[in-house]
Description:
This protein is an alpha+beta fold.
Amino acid sequence: MYDFAYEKPAELAAAVATLKTDGEAKALAGGQTFIPVLKQRLNKPTTVVDLAKLGLVGITVTATTVTIGAMTTHSAVAASAEVKKAIPALAALAGQIGDFQVRHRGTIGGSLANNDPSACYPSAALALGATITTDRRSIAAEDYFQGMFTTALEDGELITSVSFPIPERAAYMKFRNPASRYAMVGVFVAKFPAGVRVAITGASQSGVFRHADFEKALSANFSAGAIAGIKTPADGLNSDIHASAEYRAHLIGVMTKRAVEAA
Length: 263
């Protein structure tokens, strides 16, 4: 690691002020991506701003939404009886992230801010039509995700909470890398009165995306058979040592069918 200053403010305004005035300062949430990057000397912040004391934790459930504080850990979401009752698929997704240690340190806000193309939470946010609230504004998931490791967040802007509309049915299915447990392909399916939303993570070079053809078919007939004849093009999908683009295209169909059946 390089040398850096360390701050652990107790107020959101103080954290925002440091990040705003120091362009090389970086925020630290759970640190599951940031700490390895520091250790590998791939980032050289002047100041690390630890968000742990800002009080951005907790889960609030109403008749229509589940709102989760940005610093709430994956393990807390997975274990929440309220989340399990309102959106069981969201709790199940959180319980599949990384391993035991990662789930107890990683946070929902950190995951969405990083927007790793193989992360799980982006698929839930996009499929459920979540709203990402920051210290400055509220951002619809449709506008928030803008490509690999790219979001609508401006410099120094911090996520404070995420609100998920409660669907009629939902499920998440993930084909995980056996070593990292990241999604080689992850599919979140959510059924609402207005129709079905399907979001795919882990497969595309540009990050999470919605599958319009699957959504149209499933909105008309919510069954696995409804998408049996729909092929996902391999163009633009990831191809690496773990799986080819063609294999990922096949997995998208398989995981979507499993998610529909589970929902």
